[in-house]
Design brief:
With 90 residues, the protein is an alpha+beta fold. The protein contains 3 helices and 3 strands. The chain has helices at residues 4-9, 11-19, 69-76, and strands at 2-3, 24-28, 31-36.
Length: 90
């Protein structure tokens, strides 16, 4: 743990500590406010995460994909879809 004023004075020293694997806790008036920790080495390959790990954990209601009529009409009135007639005009 180090106060900000001390960290400013001896930044190179604390940087070497972090490079060596230490975690430096920055304090303001002896109260911790932040941590400086080493990043993972870029040459270390992290294992790829499997797709679908969250499957079933975030249920979506059946009406999630149901189109809101007012929003749909505004969307289809744009110049992107000039040939499509809004549902209200059918």
């Amino acid at each position: 743990m180090v106060n900000l004023a001390e960290a400013k004075k001896h930044l190179a020293h604390y940087t070497r500590l972090v490079k060596g694997g230490s975690v430096v806790v920055l304090c303001e008036r002896n109260k911790p406010i932040a941590e400086i920790r080493p990043l993972g080495h870029p040459s270390v390959k992290r294992p790829k995460r499997k797709i679908g790990l969250m499957k079933g954990l975030c249920p979506i209601g059946l009406d999630f994909l149901k189109e809101d009529l007012e929003t749909g009409e505004e969307f289809y009135k744009t110049s992107i879809f000039p040939d499509i007639v809004p549902k209200s005009q059918l």
